[in-house]
Amino acid sequence: MLSSKRILVTGGAGFLGSHLCDRLLEQGHEVLCVDNFYTGTRYNVHHLISHPRFELMRHDVCFPLYVEVDEIYNLACPASPVHYQFDPVQTTKTAVHGAINMLGLAKRVKAKVLQASTSEVYGDPSEHPQPETYWGNVNPIGPRACYDEGKRCAETLFFDYHRQHKVRIKVARIFNTYGPRMHPNDGRVVSNFIVQALKNEDITLYGDGAQTRSFCYVDDLVDGLMRLMATGDDVTGPINIGNPVEFTIRELAETVIDLTGSASQLVLKPLPADDPRQRQPDITLATRDLGWRPRIQLRDGLARTIAYFERLLMSSSRRRAAE
Ligand code: NAD
Ligand code: UDP
Questions:
Q1: Which residue segments constitute the domains of the chain, with CATH numbers given?
Q2: Which terminus of the chain has fewer CB atoms gathered within 10 Å of its CB, N or C?
Q3: pLDDT beyond 70 at 246
């Protein structure tokens, strides 16, 4: 480790944020984890609470924050379609006001700031795979717009603060990422399928399951974010971070059944509005500028995630039995 920095992680009690806090602490940094626990939970970071370089603060990024830090990772925002559509106005506020507040903070304390943007800025893409130069195909008034347009506006703000105020920015476009600490009721496809398979319940395939996604394991993703933060000021992104190996959702369901040995059946449910038909990152830029590529194959990452959910379900059934 070269030097210890003070690093703010917003959304640090969420799925990705908690893994990022772990890795930053391992590297010897001081970590300030800020979260309003909207979708994240204290349990994700409870192993860090007594760590001398870790601090947990309840705060909503829609309001200004006055702290002194060297780097900011802005991850605060619900990420699952079920959760970000639950209170769409709040989702847009979090994405936009959160970006303004974190950029304002970065400007005042001269910190580097990294935005967790998303492949959703490409919407239902007509270019495949998606390079960063593709401008996207987003329905601005549909049910996903609160998230997609919120994140697009956040990118606009990042680049305007960079051009206007010389703020040092990094914009990562994150593609579907999965792993331990996803919430069991998160609603995203990997956690849904694993929990359903482990309970031998029906696996809910939306549409015909022919739509595709490319799934990145959380450790690879966090490595990509940290490499992006470590780049010189000339590297701003946007830069795609995701695993380019593409699967249909039906293939994902079949792999989960195979790995869990589940007796679950596939059942078809209506496809949600504006559900993107295909998604695959072009990671040429990440490979060139960050020397990054994902290392963990889907089956290996799924096996680790299944082991996590097995432990979680086991301990909650033990708790219920003791009550
Ligand atoms: P998550 O829901 O587990 O984590 C989000 C965290 O932000 C939660 O802890 C939540 O409580 C917190 N939060 C929400 N609103 C807040 C607010 N107003 N103030 C403070 N905290 C708030 O989701 P995740 O998968 O860990 O996603 C983290 C970030 O990465 C999000 O910004 C998301 O848009 C982005 N992202 C994730 C993925 C993915 O596949 N996991 C893909 C693309 C982008
Ligand atoms: N999906 C599904 N069954 C589920 C949850 C999701 O078939 O129980 C599908 C969903 O329609 C989408 C894909 O899986 O096509 C990925 O959904 P997710 O919510 O994980 O993320 P998205 O990439 O759509 O934001």
A1: 6-177+218-242+280-295 (3.40.50.720)
A2: C
A3: yes
